[in-house]
Amino acid sequence: MKTYIFIAFAFFPTLIQAQTKETKLKLSLVQAVGLARENSIAALQAATLKETRYWQYRNYKADYLPQVSLDASLPDFTRNNVAVTQPDGTVEFRPVANDNSQLNLGIRQPLRFSGGQVFMSSNLLRFRDFDRKQTRYSGSPLVIGFNQPLFSFNSFKWDKKIEPLKYEESKKKYTEDLEYISKTASTLFFDLLIAQINHEIAVKNKKNNDTLYKIGEVKAGMGKLSRDELMQLKLASLNAGKALSQADLYVESAMLNFKFYIGNKSDAAIALLLPEKLAEFDIDMSTAISEARKNKHQTVEFRRTLLEAQKEVARAHGDNGLNASLFATFGLSNKANDILGIYSNPKDQQTLRIGVQVPILDWGRSAARIKTAQANQKLAEYSIAMQENNFDQEIYTQVKQFKLIREQMQNNVAADVTAQERYEIARNRYLLGDLSITDLNIALQEKDQAKRDYIMSLKNFWDAYYNIRVLTLYDFETGNRIGTSD
Q1: Residue 460 near residue 405 (C-beta atoms within 8 A)
Q2: Separation of CA 362 from chain center
Q3: How confident is the model over 329-378, as pLDDT tens digits?
Q4: 265-324, pLDDT tens digit by residue?
Q5: What is the spatial distance between Cα 150 and Cα 325, in angstroms, rounded to a whole number?
Q6: 136: which strand partners?
Q7: Nearest one of 358, 361, 362, 379 to 313, comparing CA atoms
Q8: How far are the Cα atoms of 190, 240, 345, 398, 454 from residue 465, in angstroms, in the given order?
């Protein structure tokens, strides 16, 4: 009777806590995801990339606004000996000391529809001869001009179509990056949670196996246990110790990875709360696919890629060797002995120039460039068609998998509860001496495995949950799109 009492009290101690260190921080899955979206390096990188693309877009917009510039050379002084041809053809070197200061104010406006530009300028030139004490002024109070390439590729026209798409794509990509951060945080959360639970199981198993070995020593001393069985109990205790050491290492490694990703720099241990409250919603397949096509950055990327391919075809046609340009100006100019005289009764001036460059023989280079650009356009079209098909297929598969995982969750919950109840029954039977230690260990192992399966099914559920958000950028719980277009 005393032996059974000893066995009962030795084998069933109070449950051991998973963490040996004092827990200072408890985190839920939602809190961990929120910290990662705010503090992780990945979130900072995504925000920086979004800002960079915003300023790139602002730079593009600024290129099409009027550009005002001021150029000046004040002073432009020269003191030198220069060669001067004499009336009889000889050359004499004469000392000169003068200043050629000039000031130019101009404004230009690119023309998107034609690829040319219009401009307006005003300039002033002062010449001062220090040796002869003379000062002269010349300048153009107003010049209006026009510069237009003819028959050439107009990059302005294509940039107007492509650059806004790049900016729209960057905004959608930022929203997608944040959702991917959520998914990664969830994965690391469960990596740590599983490591902690495995550590808890390892602690319990080590305690139980040590207790069984001690009980075995007592029973062996009473002649009720063979030496072979005693050695099996000792080996199980040693293996449990090795498993506990390995579990310690896994917890430490998972903790470091998790803390680093969410931006937690404290030395406090973290205890994770089991996210057993599952999101309740149904996913309509057609809604998932349609929302993904609207919201994902790949949709905009596909349009941009096609436009860029068409742009290269247009460039190949425009850069076919036939170049022409039209340059024309009309303005007022004058010369005077003082500044005010420049603006008194100025004379008109005009410039008109048409330049033409016609290829005579290029050995088919222009035609080859055009054919290459057209082939690349077809390749882009085929590639996009394949990517769109794969895109829809991935969403279809993920939605089906999400539904399957949620159904399996119910079985895993039931299995976990059943295994726990079976273990309690086995424990009570062992106390009554109606069950062997081997059968009790089997019940314990099945209980532990059921717990692991349940936690793994939780991980699969939340991984699929966040993956659906990444793929569709749509919140099926609220029925709203994720992110804004700001």
Answers
A1: yes
A2: 45
A3: 888 888 878 888 778 887 777 776 777 666 676 677 778 888 888 898 89
A4: 888 888 888 888 877 788 888 888 888 888 888 889 999 999 999 988 988 887 776 778
A5: 5
A6: 127
A7: 379
A8: 14, 36, 79, 9, 16
